[in-house]
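Protein Entry — a single chain follows
Fields — amino acid sequence, structure tokens
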Amino acid sequence: MNRQNSFFGFLVAGVIGLVLLGIAGFYWFVGRSPAHLVASRSQPGAAIFVSKLAPVMVSLLVNPEKLQKLDTQGELAEIKHNLFEKSNIDYQEDIRPWLGNEITLAVTSKDLDRNTENGFQSGYLMALATEKPEKSREFLELLFSKRALLGAKLEVEQYQGIKIIYDNHQVAAGAKNQNTLAGAVVDNFVLFANDPKVLREAINNLQAPDLNLTSSRKYQKATEQLPEHAVAVAFLNLPMVAQWQGLKLSAATYDSEIMGLVLNPQGLLAETTFLAPTKAESSAPLLAQPIAAWRYIPESAGVAVAGVNLTNLETSNLAKLWKQGTSTLYGTGEDALGRLAQPLVEIQKRWGLNFNQDIFSWVTGEYAIALLPHTNNSLPSWVFVVEKSPQLEAGIVNLDKIASQNGLNVNSLTLNNHQILAWTELTTAKQKQAPLSVETKIRGAHTSLDNYEIFASDLEIMNQILATPAKSVLDNPNFQKGIAAIPQPNQGYVYLDWQKSQGLLEKQIPLLKFVEVLGKPLFHKLRSLTVSSYGSETGILKGGVFFQLNP
């Protein structure tokens, strides 16, 4: 590929790299001078160029230099130089002198010419805020002059009083212009696009405000949910995203999503809000503090989830969102669950369980579920904690019955001075020059402790829970820092210790490795993830993901 032909791709990659580098680089900065990280504006100014029908818009609302100026080791500056090297841009000389406090990327349309017979070519727009419009015009002229000297066919036109410069590297007669670059300086923004049509539409959107994103009621409602001091914002028009990806949304509950990134001395909070066009009610209770069931989750947990009441899980707004999102990625929500929680799915298949009917239906109080790394097994161990309720006894009897139906014995034994009911399997084994012997394998166990019933995959994990004193995730400082960053009241937490769960998650979700490559500066420093949902306004599902990073 001619490297000039792929200029726009390199330019976009460079800017995305700046966003990721800025986010990853914040941990040098926030502990020393957090006041400088307040965004200059609360919403992207470039939204005036973006159509209200655009699928995606992503914006960084601070100058990358503010996020990197305390990079004493020079690591970020070196990576930044390498990102722009292939695009023949010298960031320090060509962009830094005029770059302002916003970088916005948008997918403007699914297909530029709206002709399905010649395939699809999406429209892409990039807007860089400029503090020195004249300086940025000089940069634009110089950039396209260099490209003309290298063989690009240069065109200049005046559109609605604005000068547009563009070129293309058409590879064959009649082929679509896959490698066009177009640029213009409009007001206080430098605009780049992969086709001059995108720039013309951007100018139309500016001059006819009812066409642009800021006039969209959907967008206005979404931006009202942005957290204060967000340094980056992403807005997704979900039906248009599905069309852009060639997917069909079935029974869509939410039609838009907005995300704001907020920095603090411990990490990064990505707050996401999904908005429904109808008055969807939220039925999950809000909790003012972490529930007591966390006390029974061992400190070594790699993935843990806790909350209240699983009886309405299948019909909750969170479940509807899961179904809407995962069905477009995997075909069905069940496939996505199988990838994410393979150990639990294997249990369901092996035992003939229906989680909704056989377990969730009687979990009316607190619950906690955890996966723990296991050195002797490819699959991790698990723990399930449930608060006692009138329905609990019948539920346990049913589980013991299911165990028996699957050829397991329900045996009573003593462990750490506690009475345990274990689901055991007897197998025969024969060793060399030894008589035939019978081995007992534990397939699960449960016991009562205080006001809770504890289920575990093996006796080793159960012994950790029953130890005196027992160490739980509540004793883990990373867990405490994670939940402290999440607003309260909320609907419970999902906690991931990245070092302990990375291998499991990468195995079950292959796409995660690709995401890690794109966000290497962030994932390289990642210590833990804490996820929660909160807010009780009808028609709105709000949640946050806190990325705790190593110093």
